[in-house]
Amino acid sequence: MLEAYAKRILQARVYEAAVETPISAMPQLSKRFDNNILLKREDLQPVYSFKIRGAYNCMAQLDEAQRAKGVITASAGNHAQGVSMAAKRMGIHATIVMPRITPEIKVAAARARGAKVVLKGDAFNDALLHAQTLMQEHGYTWIPPFDHPDVIAGQGTVAMEILRQHQGPINAVFVPVGGGGLLAGMAAYIKYLRPDIRVIGVEPEDAACLKAALAAGERVTLDQVGVFAEGVAVAQIGEAPFEILRHHVDEVITVNTDEMCAAVKDIFEDTRAVSETSGALSLAGLKKYVQREGAQGRTLIAINSGANLNFDRLQHIAERTELGEQREAIFAVTIPERPGSFKAFCKALGRRMVTEFNYRYADAGQAHIFVGVQVQPGGEDRLEVARRLEAAGYSVEDLTDNELAKLHIRHLGGGRPQEPFSERLYRFEFPERPGALMNFLNHLPGGWNISLFHYRNHGAAYGRVLIGMQVPEADCATLEQRLDEIGYRYWHETDNPAYRLFMS
């Protein structure tokens, strides 16, 4: 299998549209982690993503009859641009079906290259099913985003370039995983020529379809897929990629949202490139690997797979970056409600930078403050801050890993009802698009008073809402049954310590 794919990769027709991208050094990150860290710059492709390679190679293999029918594909954005560009160069009509959560920058780019864009559904699988329906109705030729040998071969040329460009030792290559086409092509080529190099896939924790498949020994479909990195938000690994990956990938590392945001910042600081979150995914995995292994003096290469990022998303990424770097910790601290308390609290912190401080008067005895503190990466310094505050007599709750605190409470802290009442708190995620908030409100069950509501648009694919409702104990089961029927992901947060300390 590896030999056959290596030949396909060597013969792939990609450079009629794609370019050979450079490998950039990352001097600051390399010094910080004491390794030689390099970045393969697929963000420099004409469509700002590696996807042009597989799309063009697949379409270059079509015969005249297949081209005459026109082509169709489903995509969360980057593959769409590859197909659009290839179709324009070849004079082929292209139809692209995208989920409605696709960033506008990717939708506009596909349309600008002459493709007909159809927005359908709230996730990639919805778009995929609709595209297949259109294919049956109109006889279009299907161009798969990852599950095809010619697509895999086209993506595999990334590995071919790496081994040619960097002929010295390479200890590991880190590759983002969505449907698996890029990782499969790179693994096939690298393991055929340089089996000593570790090939490591990287997935978001909430979209880890390859990790689930490897654990099960077969392809599985995830019940839910997180879409913060929409470029890799795939529920099931591709069939053709999995046949390669089940034997030839060394491991899969998963990372969280904060770690991806931190990697976006790392790429910018070393290269001045602004990566999309899925583009920075593999670097986040590389950093996690170095910290886990205590690696030093190794040559490690990550793939910056794309730079198609909506500008307004940068604010949210910046907010989460310091947490992803483990350079900021968030605490809820109880202090006495009297003059001089804040000064005494800062004295207990020592010479540390306070990054955020939220407070509102609650009662005459105690105050609960929401505070961000600058810490050193690694986790031990964060524990030391908590120990130091507790030694000074403060009650401390570490909220650094608390999603409710990071998404909502930091913007709401201190608001409390004047009189106690029975309140249930829920955190929701719903597909973000024009009119989405009103659609969410229309689906909320009536009959219970809304006592708290927080929504903030930060340019992400999903909107996030915090909602409190006055619900008698006897109605709780009925309420959650109604919430289940809405079909959006939600979490019951009434017992969350961030809510208990600052809002209830």
From TrEMBL:
Keywords: Amino-acid biosynthesis, Branched-chain amino acid biosynthesis, Isoleucine biosynthesis, Lyase, Pyridoxal phosphate, Repeat. Coiled coil: none annotated. Its EC number is 4.3.1.19. It is an enzyme of class 4 (lyase). It comes from the Bacteria. SUPFAM superfamilies: ACT-like, Tryptophan synthase beta subunit-like PLP-dependent enzymes. Residues 329-401, 424-495 form the ACT-like domain. It catalyses: L-threonine = 2-oxobutanoate + NH4(+). Its cofactor is pyridoxal 5'-phosphate. Pathway: Amino-acid biosynthesis; L-isoleucine biosynthesis; 2-oxobutanoate from L-threonine: step 1/1. InterPro entries: ACT-like_dom_sf, Ser/Thr_Dehydratase, Ser/Thr_deHydtase_PyrdxlP-BS, TD_ACT-like, TD_ACT-like_sf, Thr_deHydtase_biosynth, TrpB-like_PALP, TrpB-like_PALP_sf. Pfam families: PALP, Thr_dehydrat_C. Catalyzes the anaerobic formation of alpha-ketobutyrate and ammonia from threonine in a two-step reaction. The first step involved a dehydration of threonine and a production of enamine intermediates (aminocrotonate), which tautomerizes to its imine form (iminobutyrate). Both intermediates are unstable and short-lived. The second step is the nonenzymatic hydrolysis of the enamine/imine intermediates to form 2-ketobutyrate and free ammonia. In the low water environment of the cell, the second step is accelerated by RidA. NCBIfam families: ilvA_2Cterm, PRK09224.1, PRK12483.1. PANTHER family: THREONINE DEHYDRATASE, MITOCHONDRIAL, THREONINE DEHYDRATASE, MITOCHONDRIAL-RELATED. Belongs to the serine/threonine dehydratase family. Homotetramer. This is L-threonine dehydratase. The gene is ilvA1.
